[in-house]
């Protein structure tokens, strides 16, 4: 029984070590979730920056409208001679960005449906919003790069990160060139290649995300199994504790009985010693009686011999 209890306690220690490992894995998950929250905060900051830029553009447009409304054309050129050039450059940039966005949408999504056509029409109506969406897309892709840094895969994480950063830099350079009236087909093809690279990387990240989900499911399944095993072990532990209490009560009863038996044995030993002393005394008395009997027999024999001699003398 003691061996069974010892083996059960060893099994409980093993389960305790497994639970400690599980707790460490949950801590790692919590750290990853906190890092994801930080990334979400970065996205919110990026969105706020976009809104600030849009506010600045709206303020500049309001100023331009007020100058138009207040001053005539001649005075307006005198007051802000560089304003017309800036407006032209902004319009050119917007037109070039609209063309690039339309061509990219046509190349990336050849079988378009009604939803894609509606999006293209919305981009034509609201070019600034489409540009902001693209900027948000670039920021989200850069955030996926940060996620790669946080949760790297086992095979080729460094290569993916380097390729993603190089593609991102090339995209920024080409977008800046395109914003400066670059309407080359070569640059458009480069941008298309960059977006295809982004799509490949996104597919790769989706595959890795599915692998991580499978790993998480396996870990959760193992955690449920460990919880079941832990509950079973708790039940076994409660049963063993109950048995231990019973065994301890039995041991105390046996100890009490053993003490009583020892006391009885001590009493019997004392009685045995007394009986031995009595027997020894009786043996001594018996020996004395035997000796006296022998002496008496000798005396009787001697007396008989004397009587015989006397009778013989009398006959003579």
UniProtKB/TrEMBL annotation:
Name of one Pfam family that matches: CCDC144C
Lineage: Eukaryota, Metazoa, Chordata, Craniata, Vertebrata
Keyword presence, Ribosomal protein: no
Keywords in alphabetical order: Coiled coil
Coiled coil: 9-36, 202-250
Positions of the CCDC144C-like coiled-coil domain: 256-316
Superkingdom of this protein's organism: Eukaryota
InterPro entries reported in the protein's UniProt record: C144A/B/C (IPR040118), CC144C-like_CC_dom (IPR039497)
Residue segments, region Disordered: 81-102
Signal peptide: none
Organism (species): Micrurus lemniscatus lemniscatus
Keyword check for Coiled coil: yes
Name of this chain's protein: CCDC144C-like coiled-coil domain-containing protein
